[in-house]
Design a protein that fits this description.
The structure is a homodimer. Chain A has a domain of 154 residues. Helix content of chain A is 63%, strand content 3%. Chain A contains 20 helices and three strands. Chains A, B: Its EC number is 3.4.17.19.
């Protein structure tokens, strides 16, 4: 390691920021998983104070000088990559005037708060009024970010979640997906029409569901000395890399969704638990992007979790907790976990329909941010695209249509593509893995998941933010993002080809 | 409200400190009740960073000027009391040089860490080596604090926990207690020698114990919308006033201790939950002292919880969770909860023996801080006093003798008197309460605890740190601390006089 003053000073500042973000992460987890209702105002005030503090630290004038000076210093390759990531975090905090950040936070909070009652009331008009302000401020944010980075406003917003990705590339990929996805959905549904699926018969006691979830997490090598499983109304993976907190929710009439939700969050968790230990306090030690994060949860849930080989491991655990049922036969579990049924709601969508939900949102939010449409144009576009891609009629149904997601309410434009990028990366990893391990499914069925964990650890987890996303994926799989693997995976699973 | 600039600036600074301390309190609770082992280093680093931050805020040079300027401003009575408490917090942070604080923290951490293995190994010699350094630095702390406040080093250290209390006053009180306590213990034991006590027969499922504890908390009006009950290895009351976190520990062969432990922590919790709402972000809104805090937990545990009237309410709950047992008869429960048995360990001591444990510690720590003895003199004094006050032989038994407590390991000299002050205040409150409510026990037995809560809320909880301790107690009971009430309570309960 070369020790030089500007770079060293930066590492101290970013370590401080990391420690403060630790407190924010634990307080945020607690807020969702533990906190009783009356704690809310004091918690919000405490977290806002922390936000003011960390904003002040990362916008201190000397940081710009130190970043520039460090560029001239004699740094090794890892330090240089860390410096690149420092500059990225610095830019995101410093390119926006404090007044805009505050105005967007307030408008987003107002819109989201009202949305919580407007959505069940199907009140698009009321929602639209608040959304217009969020759209206006998000466009302004995109404009300022794009001034520095080039590209469109939408590109600049998406870059917060997917560094380096461009919307032209997303459009190219999604256009291709649209050319085959509706047909694939139709064929899969035709194939499944003749299959009988037996529903599990509840109730399923929450304590048993939790015990089953913990067993699944152990099978997936979640480190319980460095993390926990709890309950929250919206499942998430939070905490800090040294202490990862995942959550789920239980319904006593259904364990199927909760179980696979735990498998999903465990994928996020193992990424965090295996980020490079020596770099955890630095930007280099963080997960690469939202798409890469989602590629871990979807590697666990879609590539591994819903595979016949893995279900073969899980089936006896299910029976040991809930007794024998016809529904727990292996072939029935496989059918349960691969049913295709277009519907209104993205978060409830199956693997095959999910990309359609993402593509329509991408198309709408991109046009909205780039000024091709206005907020009032959303419902008509939503109805048209839902019908075209999924054959679902959403006219007049805002509740389960364009008002269903939280993302736009507080200005999270540019996030949606990450979900489907993650699914595509995951399919690409497993194509590589299967080339390296031709007997992968047999090993999984025999309880040996190590080849998967070893591959993900060596290629993704341990790499943190060392490489750009393209470079990370190229080093891991020999090529940059190639959606053909995703298509092949879907055809194999849903058409058996 | 008068708005004036220096005072206003101070309220902003103290509100900021309060919000940061919120994050520290929740992270601290999480560390004890939730955090898995591998989270420890990162948590310690995050909390240390927070400590550096808040120390920097409260030692900023302008605070001294603002405190002085605010004294000249036109403040109302509550603002003036708040300013007094601000100055108190400021003084405690500013009278000590940072090097001393750091040296004491390090020496304390080293001593405590080693103590965790030295105590079970009965290794007094090893412990003494570390303790000497802690004693040296604590004396230095006391010297610097005493320079500003007057009085002895021990007075200055005790003042951190019991503002305004002097060791001469404690000595006067404890000398009087020593004149009657050993005799009272002997007579109580003689009286109990002829009683038969039936032990409850376990096991007692933890889930049932928890449910029973929650019912007791509801009976005691713990607000579950503003707090939680969880498990930790050392029970405590933590969190923040808006969201109070109490903990207990369960043993499946005994529910008696855990249940009364929950009653105890609920007393602390209700104090916190009912501090003055409008002042929670300011020093005026905090609990008055450690002794007054303990007076709340002991009002709940000793005055109310172990009273026959309250046990009459609890007995049916116990039976509903654990079935019928001879041990659950009301008179047997009363005997279980008032057994007197001198022993080695302070935290396991009964109500009657507890003050003896405190008095011997006070005498030793006072002499140690004021330079009358050295650390190596502790064991001989301990042995002598344990024999004199409790008839217990501790010679050679450091593990269950002078090495049993955590307080001295990290320099917490001056804290012990608060425990017995709390017991005395609690007895004094209930003497007042009984004068105002002659039918108090009958009301409690009938399930009406409101007279107690109303009295505590009006006289203690809602007052925060508005008054000095003496003034608070005088306003509540018509006199300052008067240990005669404590003696009368013990004689009534243990001798039936």
């Amino acid at each position: 390691m070369t020790h030089t003053s500007a770079y060293q000073a930066l590492t101290h500042t970013f370590a401080r920021l990391h420690r403060f973000s630790h407190l924010g992460a634990i307080a945020g987890w607690d807020q969702a998983a533990m906190m009783p209702s009356k704690g809310n105002d004091a918690r919000a005030a405490a977290l806002a104070e922390l936000g003011v503090l960390t904003h002040g630290i990362i916008t201190a004038p000397q940081l710009k000088e130190q970043l520039d000076a460090a560029e001239q210093e004699n740094l090794d390759e890892l330090q240089r990559a860390n410096l690149r990531e420092m500059r990225r975090e610095w830019a995101q905090a410093n390119l926006l005037p404090a007044e805009l950040v505050e105005a967007k936070t307030l408008a987003g909070a107002r819109c989201e708060h009202a949305w919580r009652s407007q959505r069940p009331a199907n009140d698009w008009k009321g929602f639209l009024e608040n959304l217009r302000e969020v759209v206006k401020l998000s466009r302004e944010e995109g404009r300022l970010l794009a001034e520095a980075s080039g590209g469109s406003r939408y590109d600049a917003l998406m870059d917060k979640y997917e560094p380096g990705m461009k919307s032209a590339e997303i459009e190219r990929i999604f256009t291709e997906v649209k050319s085959w996805l509706p047909g694939l959905i139709d064929r899969a549904r035709a194939k499944q029409a003749s299959e009988t699926v037996i529903e599990p018969v509840g109730p399923f006691a929450v304590a048993q569901q939790r015990a089953l979830g913990v067993e699944a997490m152990k099978l997936l090598r979640f480190d319980f000395d460095g993390g926990r499983l709890d309950v929250s109304s919206h499942p998430f993976c939070g905490g800090v890399p040294e202490d990862v907190r995942i959550t789920t929710r239980y319904r006593d009439d259904d364990f199927v969704q909760s179980l696979m939700g735990i498998v999903h969050e465990t994928g996020h968790a193992r990424y965090e638990q295996n980020l490079p230990k020596d770099w955890l306090e630095q930007p280099l030690g963080r997960a690469r992007s939202m798409g890469i994060h989602e590629s871990q949860s979807l590697s666990f849930e879609m590539q591994l979790g819903r595979s016949p080989a893995f279900l073969q491991l899980i089936a006896p655990l299910i029976r040991s907790h809930f007794g024998e049922q016809p529904a727990f036969a292996l072939d029935n579990l496989q059918r349960l976990y691969s049913r295709v049924q277009p519907g209104y709601i993205r978060v409830d969508a199956d693997e095959l329909c999910y990309p359609a939900h993402v593509i329509l949102r991408f198309e709408i939010e991109r046009a909205l941010m780039d000024g091709e449409i206005e907020a009032e144009d959303i419902p008509a576009l939503w109805d048209e695209k839902m019908m075209a891609y999924l054959g679902v009629d959403t006219r007049g149904n805002y509740t389960n249509g364009c008002m269903q997601d939280i993302h736009w309410t507080d200005g999270g434009f540019g996030y949606f593509p990450s979900y489907t990028l993650g699914a595509m990366y995951a399919a690409q990893y497993f194509a590589s893995l299967r080339r390296a391990e031709p007997e992968l499914d047999a090993k999984v069925a025999a309880g040996n998941l190590e080849p998967i964990f070893n591959w993900l650890n060596a290629n993704i987890w341990s790499q943190g933010s060392r490489w750009s996303t393209d470079e990370l994926v190229r080093r891991a799989t020999g090529e940059t993002l190639n959606p053909a693997h995703f298509k092949a995976h879907l055809e194999r699973r849903y058409l058996g080809v």
